[in-house]
Amino acid sequence: MRVAVIGAGLAGLGAATSLAAKGHDVTVFEAGDRPGGRNVTLTSKRGDKADAGTQYFHTSYRRARALLRDTGLDKGLATVKGPTRFFDARSSRGHFDIAHNAPWIAPAGWSNIKAAGLIARTLMNWQPAASLNYAAKLDAADAWTAYADPFLRDYVIRPLVRAGALVEPEAARASVAHLMRLFQIVVMTNYLVLPGGIASLAQALAARLKVRYGAPAASLIVERGAVKGIALVSGAIQSADHVVVAVPPAVASLLLPEDWTAEREYLDGIVQPPFALVSFFLDRPLDPKVWSYMLPAGGLVGFFTDAARKAPAMAPSGRSIVQAWPCYPASQALMPLDDADIIERCRAELERYFPGASDWIEEAHVTRHPFAVPLHTVGHQQRTRDFLRGADTRRGVSFCGDYMTGGFTEAALWSAERAAQRIG
Prior knowledge:
By secondary structure, this protein is α/β, with parallel strands linked by helices.
C-alpha cells in the first residue's frame, strides 16, 4: 500500500516507521528542513549541546523506549539526577529543594499530607499515560476548581502544568484527568536523556525512511468520499492509498475539505500557542546539584532549567546552560518581538534570581516553536473520542498527534501506533 505521511514530527515518524516495517511504501512529507518537530538540539560555539524543545523521555514511555532500542540509542540513555529548587518567599532561605519523586514541600509543613490524597486518587484511576480511558467524571472536572486548596494550587497544580504544558493553571483550565496524567509521569517516573540530544531519535528514524523536506501539504485530495492523496503547496500531486495526517491541529484543519465540519471544529478548538525558549550559555557552573528552578507566580518566566546539570554528557565544559521557559499566557507577549528583545526580557528575569548572571553569559539563543504544548482542557478526552469515532469513518485517512491525549512524546507515539494499526 502507498502511504503518504504529512509531518516528520515524532508522531509522523513513528507511524511511518511502523508502516514501513509492515512492508508498505511510505513517504513522509515535511514542510521544514529537519525532522522532529519540537525535538530540537542546539550546539554552542564551545561545543556544548542543549535540548531546546522536548526535554527528556520518561521511564514509563513504552513506545518511545522501543524505538530507542530499535535504533540502538537506548544504550546511551542516562537518568536526570538532582532536585528542583523552588524560589519561595515563605521559605526561611527564600528557596527550598525537592526531589521530583519525593516532593516534601518544606514551607508547607503538615499540609504536605494533602498531597497523599492526590497520590491515592492517581493510583486508583491509573491508566497508561497516553490512554483515552480515564473516567468521564475525571475528564469533566476542572482541576483548578477541584484542587482549590492553596497548597495544592501553588505546589502541585502550578508546577505540574507549567512543566507539563508550559501554561499557568489559571489559563490552562486543565481537567482532573489531565492533572492525574501529569502527576503520573512527572512525579512517578524517572527522566531519561540522550547524550546526543533529544533530536537524535528523530534523526535516526528519519534516516531510515523516505522523507521529503521542504514539501508542505496544501490539502487532501478526496474523490467520491475517499482520500486519494495530497496536493502539495508546490502544485505537485502525490497519490496514495492512505494518508496519515501528523501535523499540529491548526495545520491539519486547513488540509481538510470544508464539509468535514466536525473534524475541523475539533481541530480548531485546540489551543496550541506558539512559544519562544531562551538558552543562556554561561561561563561558569551554577549549583552542581540543582537542574531546575521553579519561580513564583506572576512573572514572565515560569521556570529555569540548567541543561548542563540535566544532561552532563551534553555539556563537556561543565559550564551551566540556563534555559528560560516563559509560560502561557504571559509568553505570548514575546512572540511579536525580535530575538534581541526576547533575550533581554528573559535576561532580566535571570538576573533577578541569579544576581550577576548577566555578566556570565557567553551566548544566548532564541528557539521559536510555532506550536508548543497543546492544552488539554475540561472535556478534551471525550471530544477526542468523538473526533476519532467520526474520523475513523473517513476512508483513506488517519490522524495522529500528541494533541489527542497528553501533549507529550508517548501520547504522540500512541496515536501513531493507533493510526498504523488502523491501516494494517
